[in-house]
Design brief:
Distance between the termini: 26 Å
Strand content: 15-25%
Low-confidence stretches: 1-7
CATH topology of the largest domain: Sulfite Reductase Hemoprotein, domain 2
CATH superfamily of the largest domain: Sulfite Reductase Hemoprotein,Domain 2
Oligomer: single chain
Mean pLDDT: 91
Structural class: alpha+beta
Largest sheet: 5 strands, antiparallel
Order of helices and strands: EEEHEEHHEHEEEEHHHEEEHEEEHEEEEH
Number of strands: 20
Helix content: 10-25%
Strand order of the largest sheet: 1-2-5-4-13
Length: about 375
């Protein structure tokens, strides 16, 4: 079997990625929020130009799946008309920004976001997957999410700029925040960070200057869960995949004014009726489906040789901890260690305990049929 083909970039609107079911077109909503009318329009585009499936990514973006080559130009025009994409493809590709759940118009996070949008085009060329976190909301929830350069708060509420992979950061004031960000970006490039691709990997090979390691960020808060919050109703999205029709229905029936996209495969309905049924979503805390990760698998990904999500759904209640069912060794759905990882290989599965998909397996060549009785099989596994 040939090695999985690892892309050095993520799909975007201007630069979609070809998968087994067509093009994957990623939309990066500004401030991770969509007004209700735009949500409904995006759902209609997913049905008209794709296969009716939207995906919520680990960076809280939305992807339209199953877009044909012929349909793509029309889709891009309509996304542009809705104001959902940047005119400049280079800027759109750089706009990997994580927003906290509780940001408000005009607050520190909102102001930093506006300043960052102005700063992005001026930064030096960096690897395509480099991302930014604005973890400056009422509570810190983004420390473990995928970002390379992080704005955070210290325990006293002061602003910090921290390189991912470093335990401490550099205190900054708001008016100098973007200049400091540019300095850190230039250090990353000048010290050879492009070869590593990500900040944390780079810091495993080179020491960060002391000036960037002066203060601890505030302690992170527990992971958010589905349910009612002060900001609105949180809905979980199993495996990050949602039917566009189901999303449109819950938006319309709830009367929510907007949809906020969040990490942890959560959606927040702002100012909507929290009692409206939401079939297909996780509505209560503690669901094992939100601790299970699975890529689309075969036949939707050309590199996968196994189906993934039906198996992950069956196994999730039986696994104590994080489950990852990966169609190949790339591990796109969870590129880090899990309590139990199953890796598709030539139509069968390799089993990894407390590791990532590319780590040495405990067992190999497991038939999918063996998992028809998952409780018995997993109990007996080393």
């Amino acid at each position: 079997m040939s090695a999985p083909q690892i892309k050095g970039w993520c799909p975007g609107a201007h630069r979609p990625m070809l998968s087994g079911d067509g093009l994957v077109v990623r939309v990066r909503p500004f401030r991770a929020e969509l007004r209700a009318a735009r949500v409904l329009a995006l759902c209609e585009l997913a049905r008209a130009h794709g296969n009716g499936t939207l995906e919520l990514t680990s960076r809280a973006n939305l992807q339209i799946r199953g877009v044909s080559e012929a349909a793509f130009p029309g889709l891009l025009e309509e996304l542009d008309a809705l104001g959902l994409i940047d005119a400049d493809p280079a800027v759109e590709a750089r706009r990997n920004i994580l927003m906290p759940a509780g940001w408000r118009d005009g607050d520190l996070t909102d102001r930093l976001h506006a300043a960052l949008l102005e700063t992005l085009p001026t930064l030096p060329p960096m690897p395509a997957k480099i991302g930014f976190a604005l973890d400056t909301g009422p509570q810190g929830h983004l420390a473990s999410e995928s970002a390379d350069i992080r704005f955070e708060l210290d325990p006293a509420g002061g602003l910090l700029l921290r390189a991912d992979g470093a335990a401490t950061g550099r205190p900054v004031v708001e008016k100098d925040a973007m200049a400091a960000l540019a300095q850190l970006a230039n250090w990353f490039v000048d010290s050879g960070g492009a070869a590593s691709g990500r900040m944390a990997r780079h810091l495993r090979q080179i020491s960060l200057p002391d000036e960037w390691q002066r203060a601890l960020p505030r302690a992170p808060r527990p992971t958010l869960e589905p349910g009612d919050t002060a900001n609105g109703r949180l809905l979980g999205v199993p495996f990050g995949s949602v039917d566009a029709g189901a999303l449109a229905e819950v938006m319309e029936r709830s009367g929510a004014r907007a949809l906020r996209l969040m990490t942890g495969r959560l959606l927040c309905l702002l100012d909507g009726d929290s009692e409206v049924p939401a079939p297909g979503f996780v509505t209560t805390p503690g669901s094992p489906l939100l601790a299970a990760h699975a890529c689309p698998g075969a036949p939707f990904c050309p590199q996968a040789t196994v189906a993934t999500r039906a198996l992950a759904t069956r196994l999730a209640p039986e696994v104590d901890g994080t489950l990852h069912v990966s169609g190949c060794a790339k591990g796109c759905a969870l590129p880090r260690a899990a309590r139990l990882t199953l890796v598709g290989t030539d139509g069968a599965f390799d089993l990894v305990r407390d590791g990532a998909p590319w780590d040495p397996p405990r067992r190999t060549g497991l038939s999918p049929l063996l998992f028809d009785d998952p409780a018995t099989l997993l109990t007996g596994m080393p």
